[in-house]
Amino acid sequence: MATYTYTPVPDQGAKAGVLAYLVISCVVLLLMMLFGLLMRMEQAQMISIGALWFYKIMTLHGAGMVGIVALAGAAIMWHFLRQYVDLSTGIFMANLILFLTGVVMILASVLLGDFHAAWTFLFPLPTTSMGMWSPGAAALFMGGLLVIGVGFVLLHLDIARAIISRYGGLGRGLGWPQLFGPDDGNAPPPAVVASTMVTIVNLIGLVVGASILVMMLINVYVPTFEIDPLLAKGMIYFFGHVFINAVIYMAVIAVYEILPRYTQRPWKANKVFLASWTASTIMVMFIFPHHLLMDYAYPKWFLIMGHIIGYLNTFPILIVTGYGAMMIVYRSGIRWDMCSRLLFVSLFGWAVGAMPAFIDGTITVNYVMHNTLWVPGHFHTYLLLGMVAMVFGFMYYLGKPNENAPDSALDVAAFWGFVIGTMGFTMSFLYSGKISAARRYAEHLPEWVPYDKIASYFAMLLIASVLVFIFRFLTRLGLASRDYQRASLARSMAT
Amino acid sequence: MQETAWQVSLVLMLMITFGVVFVAINSGKREEEYGPLVKRAYSFRTKLFWAVAFVFFPAMIYNLMSLPYSPKAAASSGPTQVINVTGHMWYWEMDRDQVEPNQPVDIRVTSADVNHGFGIYDPDLRLIAQAQAMPGYTNVIHITFPKEGTYRVLCMEYCGVAHHNMMTEIKVGKS
To answer: Which of residues 282-301 of A touch B (CB under 8 A)?
Structure first.
């Protein structure tokens, strides 16, 4: 059986590149949250920005959030993975430069070119604008996504190279010799297993995404180059689902690496762990038809596959990763600080958000809830209270002054504000979905407005809490790059 | 269906909440010997796995028993009424907007330009059926309207700046 032994070595500080990723993530995340708040306030009739600006902001919010959580997740993955394999800092920084280049292109497309076809850019909407935006604006948006995608492809190729070089293959990075043979205790650590999984699925997802983007770019200027809309939709959702799922699998590495330091208990890459990650590798790539359940033109088996894998996909989340976190915290004597609180609650957010997600993937439910606010309800739960909590937990970890440093009352209040704000915000979404409020509407019917108002107030609480998180991280940047003991030792070992 | 989905979600989310709160409450005192605790935890996990499987697998199969992709046998009587629908930016073109109640209706949905979503809301503003409207393909909604009244149609797939205004009505009643 693979082992993890806690040794009280200093926690490694972050490289300058990781800090650059995180600082940019803070700024963009906050801006995108403010955009989200504006949309909810518009639906709540608390402000009036008009449909055009609503959909432009919606497009930026979607593309910006997906991009920035991917950047933050990549920072976490790279920070811990480089402690096991030899990664290229040059490639890591190239990804950041390409990312920023893509962001500028997307901002120009939306703010100057009025592009507002949503981040999902469902063909043929980007090229059929009814004169609302130019072909150039559409090309700029898709080109921006493509540039960002190229950066991530480079990053993942470098990670694949490093894992293959260190472990001898991606199968070995997933621990297949220990999974399918005798467990000799030499399985890679969880951070490597997770990085291998993310690299495999993201490389495939990004190539598919880039392919459809290139096809659409050609179609913008050569309309006779025809694309099957059903094929385009399938490729877009394959890419989109894989990429957004991968961000959680990148960020959860912070939980695998940091919680054991707080509890001085191992997070073992045993057979069950390895099996769950191999299963997730496959399921993440085949679950995407649950986005297409209302496209009856697809083969029925394909749609049923989305339904079935939606149910199966909850097992690794609940039974392995979620349960694993509970196991090492239970009677551990853990000292709760901002980092350990956020990482612990992140597993709660992930697991609890997966429930309305798989229910939405049930075909008969999807028939009456697809593209209602139920959908943003579930993914905001596991992204905000799950993935984003992991990112902020990592930031508090990097910035913690010393292992015994107490948290201020403001930080603790911000933690509870974040939890309550997120749950209130996402439950408002879910309840609106229950009463059939349609998704992506600039104006809501009067019956839906009260819940938009409730959501807006909770979103304000959430953003106020995030402001504290970000302020704290930015004021502690000087500490974040140093090597020293950060994680508090569990009670009986510390005293 | 929406009520069921909401209640099942709440129950599952609350069960996870109780589990997490239980662990948080019991995190303060350290049990130094991790080995025996792991053994107990793995044993409980096995039981948890089978308990979840015992609930999830039948639910997964049960929910596949009645899919919207085919007409329900013997769900209604009388000849099938057909509505041909084409989505445009930003209006619905329908060759009829009035049907009889308690008789099967096939709504053949397609699009002339981009992706739209044909969502049918009952008089209580509850979504009761939908299908994507896609250029080059026709998706057929098989439905029987159980009661008379005016059913609203809303667009369920983002299609541009007037997406939220893309509404029409189907009147269900004796002609």
So the answer is: 294-297, 300
How far lies A168's CA from each of A164, A179, A277, in Å? 5, 16, 18
pLDDT tens across A347-395, in order? 999 999 999 999 999 999 999 999 999 999 999 999 999 999 999 999 9
Measured at the CA of B112, the angle between CA B139 and CA A304, to 5 degrees, comes to 25
Instruction: Report pLDDT for A430.
Output: 97
Q: CB–CB of A290/A306 below 8 Å?
A: yes
Residue A392, domain extent: 338-484
Give the helix ranges, DSSP H, for A222-286. Answer: 229-263, 271-286
What residues of chain B, 126 to 145, have a C-beta less than 8 Å from chain A?
Answer: 126-132, 134-140
Structure confidence by residue, pLDDT tens digits, B54-81: 988 998 899 888 888 887 765 567 788 9
The answer to whether A111 and A57 have CB atoms below 8 angstroms apart is no
Instruction: Give A333's contacts in chain B (Cβ within 8 Å).
Output: 27-30
- CATH code of residue A156: 1.20.210.10
User: Across chain A, what does the average pLDDT equal?
Assistant: 93
- Contact of B106 with chain A, judged by CB distance below 8 Å, is answered with no
Beta-carbon separation of A363 and B52 below 8 A:
no
- The DSSP-derived string for A343-364 is HHHHHHHHHHHHHHHHHHTSHH
- The reply to whether A304 and A420 lie within a common domain is no
Domain boundaries, chain B: 1-25+34-66, 76-172
Q: Which residues contact A243 (CB under 8 A, 6 or more apart)?
A: A66, A70, A202, A205, A206, A209
**Residues A351, A226 within the same domain:** no
Question: Is B12 in Cβ contact with A229 (below 8 Å)?
Answer: no
Q: Give the pLDDT confidence of A250-268 residue by residue, as tens digits.
A: 999 999 999 999 999 888 8
- Domain annotation covers residue A29: no
Whether CATH 2.60.40.420 fits B76-172 = yes
* Total domains present in chain A: 2
Are residues A410 and A355 part of one domain? yes
Q: Are residues A199 and A241 in the same domain?
A: yes
Nearest to B158 among A345, A365, A440 (CB): A440
Residues A138 and A180 reside in one and the same domain: yes
CA-to-CA separations, A70 to A180, A242, A348, B7, B152, in angstroms, rounded: 31, 11, 20, 33, 39
Residue A169 lies in a domain: yes
pLDDT digits (tens, 9 = 90+) for B91-101: 999 999 999 99
pLDDT at site A1: 39
Question: Does B154 reach chain A within 8 Å, measured CB to CB?
Answer: yes
Q: Are residues A200 and A152 in the same domain?
A: yes
Claim to verify: residue A286 and residue A387 sit in the same structural domain: no
